[in-house]
C-alpha cells in the first residue's frame, strides 16, 4: 500500500521526551470516527489535531443532484440523532426560497416533533457523556427513555432511526389518532425521571470532579470559533435562534413561553427546582455545557405541552408537501435553525433552470464546535480529553457531510 | 440600523471594492472584490455599531457551463464564495460575496486565489480548508491550508460541477 503523506501540525517536530498518541478513529469515546492525534508529555497533552473525513458521505454532492424534497432523507442521515430537526432546517430553507407560508396547525406540529427529537438527542448526549466519564447506568436509563420517544416517532412517521417526517410544505402525514394522548402520557411519566438523572450525574461528586473546571471555553473564544447551541450557551452567551433567529423560524415559537437556558447573574432560569451549580464549576467548562443540555430537556417538555394545547385548538390542516418536481425560482436562501447540537444552517442556490438546486450546502454546528477542541485540549490531562470531546456532543455524520 | 443602511454604508465606505449591492434579494448581499475582502471583514467585525462577530458559514457555489444552460439562464461560468455573517449583539445577518474565475488565468487546474479571513474569525480556518478541499479555492495567508475531508493525496475538488470521480484510488475501484 502506498503511504500517504503525513498531515497536520502535530506530527511535525516531536521532541524525544514527547509521544504521539492516536485516539480513534474507532475509540469509543470519540463519538464516531474521529481521529485525534495528541502530542503528549507524560500525562499532559500539549497539542491536539482532530482528523475528520472518515465518514464523508458526499451529502452535499447528492443534494445537488436531487430535488429538495428528495434530499430530505439525506439530511436526517447527517445528524442521525436529531433527524427531525435537520428535516425542519432544510424544509424551512426551501420554503424560504419558494416564499411558502405554513398553516398554523403545521407550525405547532413542527414544534412538537422538533422538541421531542431534541429530548431524544439530549438523552443520548447525556447518557454517552456519563459513559465517557466512567459511569454506565445513566446511559442505560437514558436509552430506556429514548426508546419511548422513538416509539412515538415511529408511530408518526413509520421509521425508528432513519426517521424523516417534516418536509417542505408541512409534514408527510398528519399525526395518527390518539398520538397526542400517548405523548402526554409519556411526558407525565418522563418528567419526574429527570430528577434521577440529576441525582446520578449532575450532583454526583465524581462527575463534578471530572467535568467541573475542565475545558474552559470563554465567551469570546466561543463566538470567535463559531460555536453554537449548548456549547455557546454553556459559556454564558445569551443566544438562541428560537428567539433570536430569522422570522421564518422564530415565528414557529412566537406564541410559546420559554426562556433561553443560559447563566445570567450567576443562576439559570428554573434554578430553584433543579440542583444548583456546584462551587467547583466555572462558566464555560464541561459541566456547564452538560447542565445546559439537561435544562433544555425540561424546557422542551414545557414547549411540547404548550404545543399539544395549541395544536388541538388550532384549525386548518397540517400542510401540503410541495411536489417532488416543484420548479425552484432563481435565487438563493440561507437559514439556520437551533438543532440540539447547535445552529444548523442550510443554503440553497437555484439558477432557475429546474427543480434541482445548483448548490445544497449544510453548515453543520458540530464542525465549528469541534474546531475549538484543540484550544480546549491544550495543556489538559489525557483523561480529560474524552470529557472535553464528549461535552461538545458531536455527531460525525454531520461534520463529515 | 436596517440591513439596507448597512449595505449602503459599506458601499460608501469601500467605494471601488464593493462592486454590487443587492438589497432586494431574499438574503440581501454585498459583492466585494478579492482585494478588499479582508479589510471589509475587519471593518464589519470591529465597528461598534456593526459587530459582525460571528461567521456562520463559508460556502462556494460553482457556476459551470456543462450542459450549455448558462447562456439561457444568463450567467457566465464563475465561482462564488459566499460568507454568511451574523452579529450576536445586534442579531443581524449579512451576506458577503466574492466572485472568482473558475481557474486562475483561465489555466485549468490553477486554483483561483482569495485572501484568507481566518485572522478575522477563527471559524474561517476550518471552513476555508473545507472550501479548498471540496471546491478548489486557494486561500492565501491561511495558516494550515490542507485537505480536511478528503485524504491528503486526493486528486480534484469534488464539489466542482465538472469533477470526475477517480477510477482508482490506492487499488480501490472507483466506480
Automatic annotation (TrEMBL), chain A:
Q: Which UniProt keywords apply?
A: Cell membrane, Membrane, NAD, Oxidoreductase, Quinone, Translocase, Transport, Ubiquinone
**Per UniProt, what is one Pfam family of this protein?**
Complex1_49kDa
A molecular function (GO) held by this record is: quinone binding
Could you tell me the membrane topology recorded for this protein? Peripheral membrane protein
Origin, by domain of life? Bacteria
GO CC aspect terms: plasma membrane
The listed locations are: Cell membrane
- The NADH-quinone oxidoreductase subunit D domain is annotated at 132-311, 326-401
Q: Which reaction does it catalyse?
A: a quinone + NADH + 5 H(+)(in) = a quinol + NAD(+) + 4 H(+)(out)
SUPFAM superfamilies to which the protein is assigned, alphabetical: HydB/Nqo4-like
> What EC number(s) has UniProt assigned to this enzyme?
7.1.1.-
What is its quaternary makeup? NDH-1 is composed of 14 different subunits. Subunits NuoB, C, D, E, F, and G constitute the peripheral sector of the complex.
Task performed by this protein: NDH-1 shuttles electrons from NADH, via FMN and iron-sulfur (Fe-S) centers, to quinones in the respiratory chain. The immediate electron acceptor for the enzyme in this species is believed to be ubiquinone. Couples the redox reaction to proton translocation (for every two electrons transferred, four hydrogen ions are translocated across the cytoplasmic membrane), and thus conserves the redox energy in a proton gradient.
What family does the Swiss-Prot or TrEMBL record give for this protein? Belongs to the complex I 49 kDa subunit family.
In Swiss-Prot or TrEMBL terms, this protein is called: NADH-quinone oxidoreductase subunit D
Q: Which organism is it from?
A: Blastopirellula retiformator
Q: Which gene encodes it?
A: ndhH
UniProtKB/TrEMBL annotation, chain B:
Instruction: Supply the InterPro entries for this chain.
Output: NADH_DH_suC (IPR010218), NADH_quin_OxRdtase_su_C/D-like (IPR037232), NADH_UbQ_OxRdtase_30kDa_su (IPR001268)
Assigned keywords, A-Z:
Cell membrane, Membrane, NAD, Oxidoreductase, Quinone, Translocase, Transport, Ubiquinone
Q: Name one Pfam family in it.
A: Complex1_30kDa
Residue ranges of coiled coil: none
Q: Which EC number(s) does UniProt give? A: 7.1.1.-
Cellular component (GO) terms are: plasma membrane
Catalysed reaction(s) here are: a quinone + NADH + 5 H(+)(in) = a quinol + NAD(+) + 4 H(+)(out)
Q: Which domain of life is it from?
A: Bacteria
> Is Metal-binding a UniProt keyword of this protein?
no
Please give the Gene Ontology molecular function terms for this protein.
NADH dehydrogenase (quinone) (non-electrogenic) activity; NADH dehydrogenase (ubiquinone) activity; quinone binding
Q: How does it sit in the membrane?
A: Peripheral membrane protein
Q: What is its main location?
A: membrane
Q: Which Gene3D superfamilies match?
A: NADH:ubiquinone oxidoreductase, 30kDa subunit
Domain (NADH:ubiquinone oxidoreductase 30kDa subunit): residue spans on this chain: 30-165
Q: Where, per UniProt, does this protein localize? A: Cell membrane
- Indicate whether Amino-acid biosynthesis appears among the record's keywords: no
This molecule's function is given as: NDH-1 shuttles electrons from NADH, via FMN and iron-sulfur (Fe-S) centers, to quinones in the respiratory chain. The immediate electron acceptor for the enzyme in this species is believed to be ubiquinone. Couples the redox reaction to proton translocation (for every two electrons transferred, four hydrogen ions are translocated across the cytoplasmic membrane), and thus conserves the redox energy in a proton gradient.
HAMAP family named among the record's database cross-references: NDH1_NuoC (MF_01357)
| Subunit comment | NDH-1 is composed of 14 different subunits. Subunits NuoB, C, D, E, F, and G constitute the peripheral sector of the complex.
Question: What family classification does the UniProt entry report for this protein?
Answer: Belongs to the complex I 30 kDa subunit family.
Query: What name has this protein been given in UniProt?
Result: NADH-quinone oxidoreductase subunit C
Species of the source = Blastopirellula retiformator
